Amino acid sequence: MAGTAASVGTRVDAYIALGANLGDPARQLDAAVDALAALADSRLVAVSDYYRSAPVGYADQPDFHNAVALIETSLSAPAVLDALLAIEAAQGRHRAFRNAPRTLDLDLLLYGDATLHLPHLNVPHPRMHERAFVLLPLLEIAPDVVIPGFGPAKGGLAAVAEQAITRIPGSGRRR
After folding, report:
1. Which of 9, 18, 44, 87 has its CA 20 to 30 A from that of 68?
2. Rounded CA gap, 40 and 75, in Å?
3. pLDDT tens sequence across 104-142
4. What per-residue confidence (pLDDT) applies to 139?
């Protein structure tokens, strides 16, 4: 699929990265998963375990908890992004500066096999293959996923091997 929207009735697999490092990050991720499960015209299919990772960019902040969720949706990619931004806002997300600490960060990683370049949305997420905190949870729930324009996601693991990331035992919520 190379368009910007799903056809009426068409369901698309959309992968979403979740991250938080303020307040109670695990609770923030749990609330985000609940919100994704309640998303209109969508079905939550899978959620990875939660992972702890060091911040990227601005380092003077707490470690992050990260996960990846898979939804099946008939929403367009821009509509999914709007829903993710609304979930972030409902959980107190404030965008102080790039890579700032946050109560919740939701990123649309993949939308089917679409490649989209819109003013506020790029899919696949342009840096997803450079980040262990995205690749490891993504590969946990979709070991054979392909990133359009990049190739198999597992092909990026060697490049992120030095990035510190730890699975949090007993975390995440399988569906």
Report:
1. 9
2. 8
3. 999 999 999 999 999 999 999 999 999 999 999 999 999
4. 97
Mean pLDDT of 73-87: 96
Q: How far apart are CA 14 and CA 112, in angstroms?
A: 6
The pLDDT value given to residue 170: 76
Q: Which residue has the higher pLDDT, 103 or 153?
A: 153
Domains of the chain: residue spans and CATH: 12-167 (3.30.70.560)
Catalytic residue status for 127: no
Of 107, 113, 167, 173, the catalytic one is 107
- Which of the following is catalytic: 11, 43, 93, 167? 93
With a cut of 50, say whether residue 40 has pLDDT above it: yes
Q: Which of 30, 49, 105, 131 is catalytic?
A: 105
| Rounded CA separation 101/93 (Å) | 9
Could you confirm whether 144 is annotated as catalytic? no
Give the span between the Cα atoms of 64 and 55, in whole angstroms.
6
Q: Is residue 30 among the annotated active site residues?
A: no
Which residue(s) pair with 167 in the sheet? Answer: 51
Is 107 one of the catalytic residues? Answer: yes
Q: What backbone torsions phi and psi does residue 69 show, to the nearest 5 degrees?
A: -120, 150
